[in-house]
Design goal:
By secondary structure, the chain is an alpha/beta fold. It has helices at about 5, 50-60, 80-90, 110-120, 125-140, 155-165, 185-200, 260-265, and strands at about 10-20, 25-35, 40-45, 65-70, 75, 95, 170-175, 205-210, 220-225, 230-235, 245-250, 275-280, 280-285. The protein contains 8 helices and 13 strands.
Length: about 290
């Protein structure tokens, strides 16, 4: 029997995250399940407050869930020590912030910024310089590597951020709204860079976004609503006719599903529903509302 966890770079099971603010408890994640396979490009899409950035911070090791299981690259994040978490963040996962200025030190050049993470793990100066050059070439900034932040455009800064996140060759790259501060044309260029990295390095990439059009630029989009996964959109490449999208509802590990509100609005289903099976499959229909 194949161990599914070994096939996944990310495995989340029944994850909850509760924040306490003064006397209030805010539930950011409510029993979330998620699997991401090695080499995938996945986008997490949801409205503000849906829990998508909370999920990313947990996977990056910046936060811990209140309950549930989280495994990344075969590591149980909940059982790791603080030193193991630090090593994990340095070598196993790259992280890109939405704010372009947050990813770079303004007093360093682009190539110096890319070299910095390699200094933390003790790479030699020659090795650092060569890899930094190679990464900046990969993201299309070979002619801008000696420029500091104030001489780089927003899109160029974000491409430098991608190179920085890849400095220690992590197998997983996490990006929090990486195109949120960019115009459409520049955002499209950045997304092409992610695709090139995935093709060249086979890096698993997870991108948090509020833009559902990202479905045409990644392998899979997972929509998160009220702290749980609600639907998935898969991109089917179809040659000259262009890519086609196929949407699925999610059945989590406890058998729970979220029926999209657009479908509920077309039925008479309110608080109760009946489920039955016939030759066409599983049928969901309105239940009688007993007074």
């Amino acid at each position: 029997m194949i161990n599914a966890e070994k096939l996944n770079h990310i495995s989340c099971e029944d994850v909850f995250k509760i924040y306490k603010i003064a006397d209030l408890e805010v539930v950011a994640l409510r029993g979330l399940d998620l699997d991401v396979e090695s080499g995938e490009i996945v986008a997490i899409v949801g409205a503000s407050g849906s829990g998508k950035s909370t999920l990313l911070n947990i996977l990056a090791g910046y936060d811990l869930p209140s309950a549930g299981k989280v495994s990344v690259l075969g590591r149980d994040l909940l059982s790791m020590t603080s030193s193991e978490i630090e090593e994990y963040r340095r070598t196993k996962v790259g992280f890109i912030w939405q704010q372009t200025g947050r990813n770079m030190f303004p007093y360093l050049t682009a190539i110096e910024n890319v070299e910095l993470p390699m200094m933390l793990i003790g790479d030699t100066p020659a090795k650092r310089r060569k890899r930094a050059k190679d990464l900046l070439e990969l993201v299309g900034l070979g002619d801008r590597m000696n420029h500091k932040q104030d001489r780089l455009s927003g899109g160029e800064q974000q491409r430098v951020a991608i190179a920085i996140s890849l400095a220690n060759n992590p197998p997983l790259l996490l990006a929090d709204e990486p195109t949120g501060e960019l115009d459409d044309a520049t955002a499209a260029e950045v997304m092409k860079v992610f695709d090139s990295i995935n093709q060249e390095l086979n890096t698993t990439i997870m991108i948090v976004s509020h833009d559902q059009d990202i479905a045409y630029k990644v392998d899979r989009v997972v929509l998160i609503r009220d702290g749980k996964l609600s639907t998935e959109i898969m991109r089917q490449k179809s040659g000259e006719k262009g890519d086609e999208l196929e949407e699925f509802i999610i059945v989590d590990g406890s058998g729970r599903v979220q029926v999209p509100k657009t479908l509920l609005d077309r039925t008479k289903i309110e608080r109760r529903a009946k489920v039955r099976i016939d030759d066409q499959g599983v049928i969901l229909e309105p239940g009688e509302d007993k007074k």
